[in-house]
Predict the structure.
Amino acid sequence: MLRRNPRKHKKSALLTCRVCGLWEQFCVCALLPRIKSKAGLLLIQHSSELLRQSNTGRLVEKMTDPCELISWGSREFPYREEVLNNPSRNYLVLYPRAHNRLLVPADIQGPAGEETSLVLLDATWAQAKSMSRRIPNLQKLTFVSLPQSTTPAWKLRRSPGSGFCCTLEAAIRAIEIFEGEAHVRPLEMALELVMARALHMRGKLNKLQMEKTCGPIMEFLGSL
């Protein structure tokens, strides 16, 4: 599904994909992989993300299974509090806080053997901080963080510090902890493809650099 680019610049007439956020000519949805995850993913998405081209939560929903996306702050789609109330699930909120413990492989199950659901807040960092405090039933859940890593190679938004990453990269790193690097390699390649094309659209990567980056990735994803 395509939409008009909401940004008012000389290329505002170009259509963009509602999933990958790229211009129609750069859309990568046909190449995106889909992987099974032992842990379920639950994305709570701020309503303003629906119109943001830089959103990667939609890519998480498209490329991982099981994954559920629910809205926060929308009048049209009210927040469904019951999705975090399943007693047979072990809910862990993946959001960086100063005194969090780290996500570890053993978290694939809860204390009584419950299956794990990772909750991710899909928003700007300022909005996610507010959501982490305002969503009532989050407060009774355990918050966990990813191990510190190098600064992401590709960034579309400003972050409050080094080591912070987008929703898709956070999901990839979490699944990697549970299932290993080889399992998430297709997702890593898809993220690199989207980022390279998005940066080219913003004028931060020239055409030659984009093609040099994207060519091998498209060949890899096309072979899956």
About this structure: The chain has a mean pLDDT of 89. The helical segments are 57-63, 125-134, 167-179, 181-201, 207-222. The longest helix spans residues 181-201. Strands lie at 2-4, 15-17, 35-46, 64-72, 89-94, 101-102, 115-122, 142-145.
